[in-house]
Amino acid sequence: MNKRNILITGGLGYLGGETVALLLKNKDNTITVYDRGISGSDHMSSLFCDQLNVVIGDLRDKDNLKTYVDKADTVIHFAGVAGAPLVNRKPIEAYDTNIEGTKILASLVKKQRLLYASTGSVYGKVLGTCTEKTPAKPLSVYGEQKLSGEEILSDKGGVSLRLATVYGLSYKTRDDLYINKMIQLALVDKSVVLYEADALRTFMHVQDTARAMNHFVDMLEIPDKVYNVGDQSLSYSKRQICELISKFIPFNIFEDNFHKDPDQRDYLVSYEKLLSTGFACKIRLEEKIQSMINYYESRFNSGYSNG
Questions:
Q1: Strands 266-269 vs 125-130: parallel, antiparallel or unpaired
Q2: Counting C-beta atoms within 10 Å of the first and last residue's C-beta, which end of the chain has fewer, N or C?
Q3: What is the DSSP string of 234-286?
């Protein structure tokens, strides 16, 4: 296999850590992580090696970023302000990073393979099953910015990977993701309040997300520019998720008919195009719930916090 130089923007984050760890298993890969380092790099310390170079830099610093784009033959673009609530809370930073930062990256890319971590949120609320040909109609600013990112990068041959809702433990675990959050509420509050309880979406474990990224890095040719990434067998409603968690830890489930999901995610997604490339998710949700419970229990029981 030929040696590869892979640049990963946002590589110190939730998705980045697992992707870096997996790509490092191939000794022909040299990886540069380009990240603002907001959460530091201690959580990745066990991965540091001769194959890995971590650069603390801002996506909007064009001159600095150019140095590392020029050396790369593959670029994975994770960097950005992620999630509808955070984008709404930090609108200026979100626009500067998700739109202007992505434009800067696109301006520097020449012939590199370019993989973009997009989201199923670009579809909005859809009746029936989404395919890659389903018109994108995002209902949140976050979804709109992700769709804009796809359009910006497509002019440079970028491949947009519309990820299912990710969950699970990572080098930098996110507590705000739906399944992660429900487990915390079940442990601490012994109850959850569901709104739009029957809304469907597909979930995938963060390690399967890293595997998908590795899969697209390894492909000799990528025949299309947009792929839904997930597994239709991992489609659950919010209620089904909570009922599954309740098999491991008892808690009360209440329903609220007044609030709405900012992204209005409620759809089935087809992953036939992804399957045709030879990729399939391996991890079932029920396999990971107990380890997540153990993690959050240990966190809540350690230290001296009253909260």
A1: parallel
A2: C
A3: GEEEHHHHHHHHHTTS--EEEEESS---TT--EEEE--HHHHHTT------GG
For 178-202+233-268+282-300, which CATH superfamily applies? UDP-galactose 4-epimerase, domain 1 (3.90.25.10)
Query: How many angstroms from the chain centroid is the CA of residue 101?
Result: 18
Q: 235-237 and 200-205: which strand pairing?
A: antiparallel
Dump pLDDT digits (tens) for 111-132: 999 999 999 989 988 888 999 9
Taking the domains of the chain in order of start, what are their residue ranges?
A: 4-168+204-232, 178-202+233-268+282-300
Fold entry, domain 4-168+204-232: Rossmann fold (3.40.50)
Per residue in 47-79, pLDDT tens? Answer: 999 999 999 999 999 999 999 999 999 999 999
Give the strand order in the sheet containing 165-167.
Answer: 165-167, 200-205, 235-237
CB 195 within 8 Å of CB 227: no
Whether 224 contacts 165, CB under 8 Å: no
Cβ-based burial of 124 (10 A; exposed 0-12, middle 13-18, buried ≥19) = buried
pLDDT at 124: 84
What tokens does 203 get?
Answer: 């979930």
Q: Return phi, psi of residue 126, to 5°.
A: -130, 135
**Phi-psi category of residue 209: left, alpha or beta, with phi > 0 → left and psi -120 to 50 → alpha:** alpha
Of 132, 121, 135, the C-alpha closest to 166 is 121
User: How does DSSP classify residue 220?
Assistant: S
